[in-house]
């Protein structure tokens, strides 16, 4: 920066001298004022170059630093976005496999539930059949007992009829007397 400042100062000084020599050759009365104008311009240019030379590097360095930070942040954001996009792509790629796995799992669960229900139904049918068989055996026993009771009633009724048919009033009196004798 110092080198640039010196170079600009030298160029301005040489320009002022060159314009001053040119004015002397023309020989005009306003030549002295023109030299002062150019000297004044040169001093202003040197001051501007000095101020710009002093402040510009800090400004441009800060600006460059800020741009660098912004670029680094943008690169980081892009990297994160790429990672998220890659994760989404992986999930989409795996989505078909996950759907197939879920379908297979639900099919297995449905088959297992069907088997469980079939086994439960078979067990319930077996229980009902066993209960029905017991009921049939019980009903058979009850029917046999009822049949025996009815047969006994019929046999007694038939015996009573036969006895009444054979028994005469004299036979009845004889039976009563024999019964009374047995009691005494």
Low-confidence runs: none
Extended strand count:
0
Please tell me the total number of domains: 1
Based on Cα principal axes, name the global outline: rod-shaped
Helix and strand pattern: HHH
- Beta-strand proportion: under 5%
The residue fraction in helices comes out at: over 70%
How many helical elements? 3
Q: Oligomeric status of the shown chains?
A: single chain
Please compute the radius of gyration using only Cα atoms: 67 Å
Distance between the termini: 165 Å
Average pLDDT confidence is: 83
SSE-based structural type: mainly alpha
Biggest sheet, open or closed, and with what strands and sense? none
Describe this structure in words.
There is one protein chain. The chain has one domain (2-132). Helices cover 96% and strands 0% of the residues. The protein has helices at residues 2-26, 31-166, 169-183. The longest helix is centred in the middle third of the chain and has 136 residues, at 31-166. The chain is rod-shaped. The protein starts with a helix and ends with a helix. The relative contact order is 0.03. The model has no long low-confidence stretch (mean pLDDT 83).
């Amino acid at each position: 920066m110092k080198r640039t400042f010196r170079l600009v100062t030298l160029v301005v000084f040489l320009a002022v001298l060159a314009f001053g020599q040119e004015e002397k050759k023309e020989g005009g009365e306003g030549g002295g004022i023109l030299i002062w104008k150019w000297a004044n311009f040169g001093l202003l240019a040197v001051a501007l170059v000095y101020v710009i030379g002093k402040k510009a590097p800090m400004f441009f360095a800060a600006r460059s630093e800020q741009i660098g930070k912004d670029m680094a942040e943008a690169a980081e954001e892009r990297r994160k976005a790429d990672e998220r996009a890659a994760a989404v792509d992986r999930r989409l790629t795996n989505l078909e496999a996950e759907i197939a796995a879920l379908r297979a799992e639900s099919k297995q669960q449905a088959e297992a539930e069907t088997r469980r229900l079939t086994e439960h139904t078979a067990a319930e049918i077996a229980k009902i059949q066993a209960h029905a068989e017991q009921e049939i055996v019980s009903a058979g026993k009850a029917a046999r007992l009822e049949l025996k009771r009815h047969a006994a009633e019929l046999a007694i009724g038939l015996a009573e009829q036969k006895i009444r048919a054979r028994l005469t009033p004299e036979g009845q009196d004889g039976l009563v007397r024999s019964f009374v004798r047995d009691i005494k």
